[in-house]
Specification:
alpha/beta, globular
Length: about 200
Protein backbone atom coordinates (compact mmCIF):
# COMPACT_ATOMS: atom_id res chain seq x y z
CA UNK A 1 0.00 0.00 0.00
CA UNK A 2 1.29 3.46 -0.92
CA UNK A 3 2.40 5.72 1.91
CA UNK A 4 1.80 8.84 -0.20
CA UNK A 5 -0.19 11.44 1.73
CA UNK A 6 -3.92 11.57 0.90
CA UNK A 7 -5.80 14.54 2.38
CA UNK A 8 -9.60 14.42 2.54
CA UNK A 9 -10.99 17.89 1.82
CA UNK A 10 -14.46 18.90 2.93
CA UNK A 11 -16.58 21.94 3.73
CA UNK A 12 -20.17 23.10 3.51
CA UNK A 13 -21.81 24.27 0.31
CA UNK A 14 -20.31 27.59 -0.78
CA UNK A 15 -17.24 27.22 1.44
CA UNK A 16 -14.84 27.32 -1.53
CA UNK A 17 -13.58 23.74 -1.76
CA UNK A 18 -12.98 23.94 -5.52
CA UNK A 19 -11.15 27.27 -5.24
CA UNK A 20 -8.84 25.92 -2.55
CA UNK A 21 -8.25 22.65 -4.41
CA UNK A 22 -7.27 24.60 -7.54
CA UNK A 23 -4.68 26.57 -5.56
CA UNK A 24 -3.14 23.35 -4.26
CA UNK A 25 -3.20 21.89 -7.78
CA UNK A 26 -1.26 24.92 -9.06
CA UNK A 27 1.44 24.03 -6.54
CA UNK A 28 1.72 20.44 -7.80
CA UNK A 29 -0.80 18.55 -5.68
CA UNK A 30 -3.05 15.94 -7.25
CA UNK A 31 -6.79 16.53 -6.92
CA UNK A 32 -9.67 14.06 -7.18
CA UNK A 33 -13.12 15.64 -6.73
CA UNK A 34 -15.86 13.15 -5.85
CA UNK A 35 -18.52 15.54 -7.19
CA UNK A 36 -16.86 15.31 -10.61
CA UNK A 37 -16.69 11.53 -10.28
CA UNK A 38 -20.43 11.49 -9.47
CA UNK A 39 -21.17 13.66 -12.52
CA UNK A 40 -19.27 11.21 -14.74
CA UNK A 41 -21.16 8.25 -13.28
CA UNK A 42 -24.51 9.98 -13.86
CA UNK A 43 -23.75 11.40 -17.33
CA UNK A 44 -25.39 9.84 -20.41
CA UNK A 45 -24.13 6.25 -20.55
CA UNK A 46 -22.54 6.58 -17.10
CA UNK A 47 -22.02 3.50 -14.97
CA UNK A 48 -24.78 4.45 -12.51
CA UNK A 49 -27.52 5.27 -15.03
CA UNK A 50 -28.96 1.75 -15.43
CA UNK A 51 -29.35 1.31 -11.66
CA UNK A 52 -30.87 4.79 -11.27
CA UNK A 53 -33.38 4.11 -14.06
CA UNK A 54 -34.29 0.72 -12.53
CA UNK A 55 -34.87 2.23 -9.06
CA UNK A 56 -36.39 5.63 -9.87
CA UNK A 57 -37.71 5.35 -13.44
CA UNK A 58 -36.90 7.24 -16.64
CA UNK A 59 -38.66 10.33 -15.23
CA UNK A 60 -35.50 11.11 -13.25
CA UNK A 61 -33.33 11.15 -16.37
CA UNK A 62 -33.13 14.14 -18.71
CA UNK A 63 -33.64 14.15 -22.49
CA UNK A 64 -30.00 13.11 -23.01
CA UNK A 65 -30.18 10.15 -20.63
CA UNK A 66 -28.25 11.81 -17.80
CA UNK A 67 -29.48 12.07 -14.22
CA UNK A 68 -31.92 14.99 -13.88
CA UNK A 69 -30.09 16.55 -10.96
CA UNK A 70 -32.73 19.12 -10.02
CA UNK A 71 -35.57 16.56 -10.02
CA UNK A 72 -33.48 14.12 -7.99
CA UNK A 73 -32.40 16.85 -5.56
CA UNK A 74 -36.05 17.71 -4.92
CA UNK A 75 -36.96 14.04 -4.37
CA UNK A 76 -33.96 13.39 -2.12
CA UNK A 77 -34.80 16.33 0.16
CA UNK A 78 -38.43 15.25 0.58
CA UNK A 79 -38.02 11.45 0.66
CA UNK A 80 -35.28 10.08 2.97
CA UNK A 81 -35.76 6.53 1.61
CA UNK A 82 -35.14 7.71 -1.95
CA UNK A 83 -32.05 9.60 -0.81
CA UNK A 84 -30.76 6.49 0.94
CA UNK A 85 -31.34 4.38 -2.18
CA UNK A 86 -29.54 6.89 -4.40
CA UNK A 87 -26.58 6.94 -2.00
CA UNK A 88 -26.54 3.13 -1.94
CA UNK A 89 -26.18 3.16 -5.74
CA UNK A 90 -23.67 5.98 -6.04
CA UNK A 91 -21.41 5.89 -2.99
CA UNK A 92 -19.72 2.50 -3.62
CA UNK A 93 -19.13 3.46 -7.27
CA UNK A 94 -17.74 6.87 -6.26
CA UNK A 95 -15.38 5.30 -3.70
CA UNK A 96 -14.11 2.72 -6.19
CA UNK A 97 -13.58 5.19 -9.03
CA UNK A 98 -11.99 7.79 -6.72
CA UNK A 99 -9.52 5.20 -5.41
CA UNK A 100 -8.57 4.34 -9.01
CA UNK A 101 -8.04 8.01 -9.88
CA UNK A 102 -5.94 8.62 -6.74
CA UNK A 103 -3.75 5.60 -7.54
CA UNK A 104 -3.24 6.81 -11.13
CA UNK A 105 -1.92 10.25 -10.12
CA UNK A 106 1.82 10.84 -10.13
CA UNK A 107 1.97 13.68 -7.61
CA UNK A 108 3.71 14.11 -4.24
CA UNK A 109 0.38 14.10 -2.40
CA UNK A 110 -3.32 14.02 -3.28
CA UNK A 111 -6.36 16.01 -2.18
CA UNK A 112 -9.54 13.92 -2.24
CA UNK A 113 -12.43 16.39 -2.22
CA UNK A 114 -15.46 14.83 -0.47
CA UNK A 115 -18.20 17.41 0.23
CA UNK A 116 -20.14 15.03 2.54
CA UNK A 117 -17.10 13.49 4.24
CA UNK A 118 -18.32 14.21 7.78
CA UNK A 119 -21.90 13.15 6.98
CA UNK A 120 -20.60 9.78 5.75
CA UNK A 121 -18.65 9.05 8.91
CA UNK A 122 -15.54 11.20 8.83
CA UNK A 123 -12.04 10.15 7.86
CA UNK A 124 -12.09 7.16 5.50
CA UNK A 125 -9.71 4.34 4.80
CA UNK A 126 -6.88 5.63 2.67
CA UNK A 127 -7.03 9.20 4.05
CA UNK A 128 -4.28 10.41 6.34
CA UNK A 129 -5.65 13.86 7.20
CA UNK A 130 -8.87 15.86 6.92
CA UNK A 131 -8.73 19.48 5.71
CA UNK A 132 -11.86 21.54 6.38
CA UNK A 133 -12.55 24.68 4.33
CA UNK A 134 -14.39 26.91 6.77
CA UNK A 135 -16.40 30.12 6.56
CA UNK A 136 -19.34 31.65 8.45
CA UNK A 137 -22.80 30.49 7.40
CA UNK A 138 -23.94 33.94 6.13
CA UNK A 139 -20.95 33.91 3.76
CA UNK A 140 -21.91 30.43 2.53
CA UNK A 141 -25.49 31.53 1.87
CA UNK A 142 -24.45 34.68 0.02
CA UNK A 143 -21.96 32.79 -2.19
CA UNK A 144 -24.40 30.03 -3.11
CA UNK A 145 -27.20 32.48 -3.92
CA UNK A 146 -24.82 34.47 -6.14
CA UNK A 147 -23.40 31.40 -7.86
CA UNK A 148 -26.51 29.32 -8.40
CA UNK A 149 -29.45 31.70 -8.25
CA UNK A 150 -31.10 29.57 -5.56
CA UNK A 151 -33.42 31.29 -3.10
CA UNK A 152 -32.24 31.72 0.48
CA UNK A 153 -34.79 29.14 1.70
CA UNK A 154 -33.39 26.58 -0.78
CA UNK A 155 -29.83 27.22 0.38
CA UNK A 156 -30.97 26.84 3.99
CA UNK A 157 -32.60 23.50 3.14
CA UNK A 158 -29.35 22.22 1.59
CA UNK A 159 -27.35 23.38 4.62
CA UNK A 160 -29.83 21.72 7.01
CA UNK A 161 -29.15 18.40 5.27
CA UNK A 162 -25.39 18.83 5.76
CA UNK A 163 -23.26 18.57 8.88
CA UNK A 164 -23.05 21.70 11.01
CA UNK A 165 -20.00 23.93 10.94
CA UNK A 166 -19.06 22.71 14.44
CA UNK A 167 -19.36 19.04 13.41
CA UNK A 168 -17.04 19.59 10.43
CA UNK A 169 -14.48 21.47 12.51
CA UNK A 170 -14.48 18.66 15.09
CA UNK A 171 -13.20 16.29 12.34
CA UNK A 172 -10.48 18.65 11.08
CA UNK A 173 -6.78 17.96 11.23
CA UNK A 174 -6.23 21.16 9.23
CA UNK A 175 -8.43 24.22 8.65
CA UNK A 176 -8.40 26.90 5.95
CA UNK A 177 -10.40 30.05 6.72
CA UNK A 178 -12.17 31.16 3.54
CA UNK A 179 -14.26 33.97 5.01
CA UNK A 180 -12.44 36.63 2.96
CA UNK A 181 -11.18 36.68 -0.65
CA UNK A 182 -8.86 34.45 -2.66
CA UNK A 183 -5.80 36.55 -1.78
CA UNK A 184 -6.31 35.59 1.87
CA UNK A 185 -6.20 31.91 0.92
CA UNK A 186 -2.74 32.00 -0.64
CA UNK A 187 -0.58 32.15 2.53
CA UNK A 188 -2.72 29.45 4.17
CA UNK A 189 -2.40 27.17 1.14
CA UNK A 190 1.34 27.83 0.92
CA UNK A 191 1.84 26.91 4.57
CA UNK A 192 -0.14 23.67 4.32
CA UNK A 193 1.48 22.76 0.98
CA UNK A 194 4.90 23.04 2.65
CA UNK A 195 3.68 20.92 5.57
CA UNK A 196 2.22 18.23 3.29
CA UNK A 197 5.53 18.00 1.43
CA UNK A 198 7.52 17.74 4.65
CA UNK A 199 8.62 14.39 6.19
CA UNK A 200 6.10 14.95 9.01
CA UNK A 201 3.25 15.81 6.66
CA UNK A 202 1.23 12.73 7.61
CA UNK A 203 1.20 13.71 11.28
Amino acid sequence: MSTRLVVGVTGGIGSGKSTVAALFQQRGAGVVDTDEVARTLTAPGGAAIAAIRARFGAGYLDAHGALDRSAMRELAFTDPAARHDLEAILHPMIREQSARLVAALDTPYVLLVVPLLVESGGKRAGMHRVLVIDCPEPVQISRVMQRSGLAQTQVHAIMQAQATRAQRLAHADDIIDNSADEAALVPQVDALHAHYLSPGGHV
